[in-house]
Design brief:
mainly alpha; Arc Repressor Mutant, subunit A; Tetracycline Repressor, domain 2; 2 domains
Length: 250
């Protein structure tokens, strides 16, 4: 059964002893227990030991509180800023993608606030562009054109975020007491009519599942393409450098 949204009642605070910072902090604590979806003003009041009207004084509705929580999550986002070492661009970008995915996968609250709720906010866009500047610069130094560098990092970012959000939505919607996706898929596959699918499923390959195997394959496809673009651009850059050298007056 789904986890029931409850909050441990604390000793009653004195009137006027709560402030917005306390409310936001308490909301994060409660969301870790009951999820963002099940967070409510009455539950938060019990969690904080205040009347619900004390919360409404600062946040007129749950949406206002979630906006404040999203702003806090964006300011305190915990995954490392993207750094691409031009000399080891593939390894550093690969590591960054996995670190970013791990951070969101291990923090459903961060995923819900930043990737789902805050995905279209101006603040999230500004943060993303600021982080993207350094990553794109590293890829340009590694040998990609600015356009290809932008598209490469953008593809990695979309791949990470899409994988995490799909996994989060799957966890939200699937029945906790029912079979997981892989079990349902295995029951659907007929080994006689689908021998390839049966053999691959037994090895851990699953269709449309945002697992590590599928994530790694997609990520490597993006990085392989970037590597090809860098290799294709090197002869042209060397020829251009030779032309510049020969044209220099002696």
């Amino acid at each position: 059964m789904a986890k029931q949204a409850t909050a441990q009642k604390r000793p009653r605070r004195e009137r006027g002893s709560i402030n917005p910072e306390d409310i936001i902090k308490g909301a994060f604590e409660l969301a870790e227990e009951v999820s963002i979806d099940n967070l409510s003003m009455p539950l938060l009041g019990k969690h904080l030991g205040v009347g619900v009207t004390s919360i409404y004084w600062y946040f007129r509705k749950k949406d206002d509180l979630l906006n404040a929580m999203t702003d806090r999550a964006l300011r305190q986002i915990v995954f490392e800023s993207p750094y691409v070492d031009a000399a080891n661009w593939r390894e550093s970008l690969h590591s960054h993608a996995h670190n970013m995915r791990k951070t969101f996968m291990t923090s459903p609250i961060l995923c819900d606030l930043v990737l789902i709720r805050g995905a279209l906010s101006a603040k999230a866009l500004r943060l993303g562009l600021e982080q993207m500047e350094a990553a794109v610069a590293g890829l340009v130094e590694a040998g990609l054109s600015p356009e290809d560098a932008f598209d490469t990092y953008s593809a990695v970012s979309v791949h990470v975020r899409g994988s995490v959000v799909l996994a989060r939505l799957y966890e939200k919607t699937r029945s906790l007491d029912g079979p997981d996706f892989s079990a349902g898929e295995a029951a659907t596959i007929d080994s006689e009519t689908m021998p390839l699918m049966a053999a691959l499923s037994a090895k851990g390959h699953h269709i449309g599942v945002p697992n590590t195997m599928n994530f790694e394959y997609g990520l490597n496809c993006i990085l392989d393409h970037a590597a090809r673009l860098i290799d294709e651009g090197r002869p042209a850059k060397k020829a251009s450098a030779r032309r510049k050298t020969s044209a220099t007056p002696r």
